[in-house]
Amino acid sequence: MHTLTIHAAKDLRIETCETADPGRGQVRIAVVSGGICGSDLHYYNHGGFGAVKLREPMILGHEISGHVEAVGVGVTSVKSGDMVAINPSRPCGECSYCAKGYFNHCLHMRFYGSAMPFPHVQGAFRQHLLVDEAQCELVSGNVTAGEAAMAEPLSVCLHAVKQAGEVKGARVLVAGCGPIGALCVMAAKDAGAGEIVVSDLADQALGFASQIGADRTINVSQGGEVLTPFMENKGYFDICIEASGSEQALQAALGVVRPRGTIVQLGLGGDMSVPMNILVSKEIHLTGSFRFHEEFAHAVRLINSGKINVAPLISATLPLADAVEAFDLANDRSRAMKVQIAF
Question: Which structural domains are found in the chain, ordered by start?
Fold first, then answer.
């Protein structure tokens, strides 16, 4: 089979490896669709992000869906031909964090396409993939493979919204409207947010935010004064989900979030400087949000039911042979929101 393997920054290759038969409790998936994530772009553009660097060739990808091709002994929940979304989160289930239910912090996590450990965890951008039965979530017949592959990034956003606490009726600012920010808008809306405002540097992204449910948008490229009205009375927003990974966006959030409000730092952009006096004096809750676990099944249910429509986010789907073109397109925010690869 073919795989999509990164060797170094801008060195993306289509390679081959053997296809294996499923063992007990395993399922072999014929991968249909794979979404290019921000972390995949970091590996492609820079060979990693922060302290995480490629130290060996690695198959990319973790946003995937496909058809069940074969099942191993003992598998009962799926059968050959079923369309499934694949949960890329594979905690050990035995470490101290798994015992507490903090599965996304597993000490021995095997998350597809991650250079955090060494040897690296090989990813899911391949034509055939062996998975555990528990990783498979059935997709309804009205959902496309591309939509099913959006379950993974939606899970990230559902976890972020959960980290925010009580969202029903809240005034929510989403800072940054790339694919994750856009899905945060959808997740916050589903959670009952009273008002959703989106900030970004690009009018095109803000126009998209309005189409998917944002009540207001702010182009922060016009200068910090555009946020001034939201700073009155110590802050307007109950919650900010910072999805851009920008230090400036985080600092701005501290000014517009009310006392005892919550900022969820979801975007990864390296180390940031935080004005602690504002954080302390306003008693703001600043919390991180990392990956997900149980939210994956919920994401698939939301997509299956049509409560969240992820289709508008899919800008283009290119064949595996055009993978480099797909990554270059995904890099261009003026042309694409979410780019997927057809396997």
Answer: 2-150+310-342 (3.90.180.10), 155-288 (3.40.50.720)
